[in-house]
Amino acid sequence: MSEPIAPRGLVLAVEDEPELLEMLVFNLEKAGYEVVTATTGQQALQQARSHTPNLILLDVMLPGLSGTEVAGRLRSNPATSAIPIVMLTAKAEEADELVGLTAGADDYITKPYSMKVLTARMEAVLRRGQQTNPAANETAPLRFGLVEIDTELHEARAGGELLKLTLTEFKLLESLAKAKGKVLSRATLMAEALGPGVMVTQRTIDVHITAVRRKLGKRGSIVQTVRGVGYRLVLSLDPSKSG
Asked: What is the pTM (predicted TM-score) of this model?
């Protein structure tokens, strides 16, 4: 008799189409995940607060509150702000992807999707979270100029001010800080922040960088665009040096 599979984490699956939700639950449980569900935006917010899942699969088109509205509320609530979010949608246009990422999603997958692709993207997002797990990172805070990153506490500060970053934004800023002013290409940032094998457009990285700059506020100019190449952190706060 085979041993039962140890749970790989708790997933909140938010989908208003019963057949798709049933398929998601079946395949996720088969892959070893525990699953709780919601069919509306309000239910999703309640379930996220009640269960604190390791990851949320969030459909964009929901009755009542849309998926992007739900993502925004989750990110604004300290109790749920750090939960990774993978958005699911039938909309394949780049503009729709950018809206989802701007709302705080860590990844964005269009329908129809294969469960193999979905679980691989989920695992990539979860691995990024494990890389900032306190048990796995007993190191001193990383500092570069105004930026200080504590991987044990999963906190980033600029000029002493705590930044409210998504998991992906945190990994991007961490990668740039580790580079100590060297330019990182978009491809390198994709690999370091999103994980190997995750296929996204270069525009996706640009959107995440824009979000990082916005959350840095008046210090956003420390993230400098090197046109045609990528990004780097600079010590100067001269706005003319930001792209």
From this structure: 0.61
